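Dear U.,

Please find below the material for section 3 of the report. The protein was modelled together with zinc ion; I have listed the sequence and SMILES used, followed by the predicted complex structure.
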Amino acid sequence: MKKTYSLLVLFIAFVMSAASFAADVRDVRLWRAPDHTRVVFDLSRPADYQVFQLNDPERLVVDIQKTNLKKLPSNLDFQDTPVSRMRHGVRNGGDLRVVFDLSQQVKVRSFMLKASGELHDRLVIDFHEKEKQARTVKKAVDITSDRRPVVIAIDAGHGGEDPGAIGPGRLYEKHVVLEIAKELQRLFNTTKGYKAELVRTGDYYVGLRQRRDIARKMQADLFVSVHADAFTNAKASGSSVYALSQRGATSASAAFLARTENDSDLVGGVSLSDKDDILAGVLTDLSMTASLDASLRIGSNVLSEMGQMSKLHSRRVEQAAFAVLKSPDIPSILVETGFISNPGEAKNLATNWYRAKMARAIFNGIDNHFKRSPPP
Ligand SMILES: [Zn+2]
């Protein structure tokens, strides 16, 4: 066994952070995405760690230096994941070793995330399933047929490790917006001429660039990202619609919001390999100008529908440098369905009837646009 052990070290990762004091594992969480499983260790402080894989049988070993773990949480459900069991022990007197027994070969990615808001420093381990590596998002339609539906990519913001804004009564933006997104998808898919797909279908994190890639694979005619705002002032209220800006933000609040929404990757966890590579050059592309023009028109249709059922934060479509909207070729809007930090609006956003009303307004706005100007 010892020989196999040294021969089969496949992958080692180091994190450069000198931790001279012991850390505690406060919690362990598990997120299941369609193509990978994520395990997150909440640490009381950053720690150095190594990860390596062994096979025969398949295992992943995680060594975390100077770290204590009293007991593994009992509520981790590894069903439908490549992990069959997780166990732990103490090494060298004070280091923690965690072993994941695996039911299949996986590609592992690991990284540390910095503490953010209520979240601790975290060690993230992603298990990517090999057979699902090449998982292509199925094209929403077969465009060889002569009359294709209008394809809408509906993106519920945040998810998994990234809760988004947190409102009174621990109302999480990620849950609210997934419900609105599902209702919006239902409205489109029960209307002739549309086909809608969700960018994220459950409670897991998708990187901002990956969200655009998923929409592109769907060959979407529109990308609509659904969010709920938060601001330091609990009185801030109203819904709003945003498009990408090629230059600066159209207002200070648009700039503030783009900054906080773009922080999602830091909170939700995307490793360096996922860094944004769409540079300013692409933004001046002609197709970008055309799709931006469409984004603004669709946005103002949605805004006027939302204005009939809720207070508006701003009467025009605001623009700022939102990473999630940077598709050069797909019209893209970001809808803030209200301020989850505002007690009154949070109360509304917590209810099904209000979410349904909000989804209906977004649907009507988009439908108004495509009725008048269908995509080619
Ligand atoms: Zn958001």
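For the text of the report, you could mention the following: The chain has a mean pLDDT of 86.

Regards,
Y.
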